[in-house]
Design brief:
The complex is a heterodimer of chains A (about 120) and B (about 170). Chain A is mainly α. Chain A has one domain. Helices cover about 75% and strands about 0% of the residues of chain A. Chain A is elongated and about 60 Å long. The N and C termini of chain A lie far apart (about 50 Å). With about 170 residues, chain B is mainly α. Chain B folds into 2 domains: about 55 residues, no CATH class; about 110 residues, no CATH class. Helices cover about 60% and strands about 10% of the residues of chain B. Chain B has a 3-stranded antiparallel beta sheet with strand order 1-3-2. The two termini of chain B are about 20 Å apart. The mean pLDDT of chain B is about 85. The chains are: A mainly alpha (about 120), B mainly alpha (about 170). At the A-B interface, α1, α2 and α3 of A face α1, α3, β1, α4 and β2 of B.
């Protein structure tokens, strides 16, 4: 085994374990915003290191994998922002643990709540 | 959309052309002359068509000082991304699920749309934060573990390390 293959293998393992943790996060978190947090971060770093690992294993593809990494870094946060904003406007209000619900949700001043929160909290 | 002067258009055109041509070269990963000529032609047509769409910056971005800060920003960003992943992993694995979520807001000093987009994207990928909306210069950030609801304090914790560098670039 060459040193490149070892690095590539390590990157593949790191990427897939972060993707696994992201999936676990999506399963465990209470509402869409926290799920997006876990999902976005894990898929960004996990996807990046997977693609980079493939680039190290097949050295002809290293430039392509670098471009793909840049595209992931651009598009992943934009899509999660779009999902979060759309779901707030649609009426899925964030789960808030502390008692001061008004104070903890600053976005309320832009999108006034119209539905009952108690139903949405369990989503 | 503001109208552009000829110099701005030319700067954007050249910048887009170089950028798209670099993407083409990286994707084909060959210097065979037919591929290179076709790539130059296609990227020139695309950059002509997209002068109004790619509005990131003009040629002044190629200033060496700015390029240094861009590389610096890249390292700041990668460090924040790795810290963010371990932070999320720790919260997910801990059985009691230590979260205290909420949405905070703060104001930024950045002016151009593109730099605000970069800041919002970076905030999404840093520990425990997710940008929900940007209205004018106000950022609404979902925070997985709210430490403070005061806009100034939140700005200091979430955005200051990025904004310091971004103000030097844009």
């Amino acid at each position: 085994m060459s040193i490149l293959e070892i690095i590539g293998g390590i990157l593949l393992v790191i990427g897939s374990s972060f993707l696994f943790l992201g999936g676990l996060g999506i399963f465990r978190m209470p509402d869409i915003y926290n799920r997006l947090q876990a999902g976005t971060k894990a898929t960004t770093l996990g996807g990046m290191s997977l693609v980079l690992g493939v680039g190290f294993l097949e050295t002809d593809w290293i430039w392509k994998s670098l471009i793909i990494i840049i595209f992931i870094a651009y598009s992943n946060p934009i899509s999660s922002h779009a999902l979060a904003r759309a779901s707030y406007h649609r009426g899925h209000y964030p789960y808030i643990k502390s008692k001061e619900k008004e104070k903890m949700d600053a976005y309320r001043e832009v999108v006034p709540h119209t539905k009952k929160e108690e139903k949405e909290d369990k989503a | 959309m503001q109208s552009l002067t000829f110099n701005q258009k030319l700067g954007r055109f050249i910048l887009n052309w170089v950028f798209l041509f670099l993407v083409w070269l990286m994707f084909t990963s060959t210097f065979f002359w037919q591929e290179v000529i076709i790539g130059a032609a296609v990227s020139m047509l695309l950059s002509l068509a997209s002068i109004r769409l790619f509005t990131c910056c003009t040629l002044s971005i190629l200033n060496p000082v700015k390029i240094f800060w861009m590389i610096w920003y890249f390292f700041v960003f990668i460090k924040a991304l790795i810290v963010a992943n371990f932070d999320v992993a720790r919260r997910v694995i801990t059985p009691s699920l230590p979260i205290n979520p909420g949405i905070v807001k703060f104001k930024t000093k950045l002016t151009t749309n593109y730099s605000k987009m970069v800041l919002a994207n970076s905030i999404t990928l840093t520990p425990g934060t997710l940008s929900v909306d940007v209205i004018g210069d106000t950022f609404y950030i979902h925070w997985i573990d709210v430490e403070t609801t005061d806009p100034e304090e939140a700005f200091k914790i979430i955005a200051e390390p990025f904004e310091k560098v971004l103000l030097k670039i844009f």
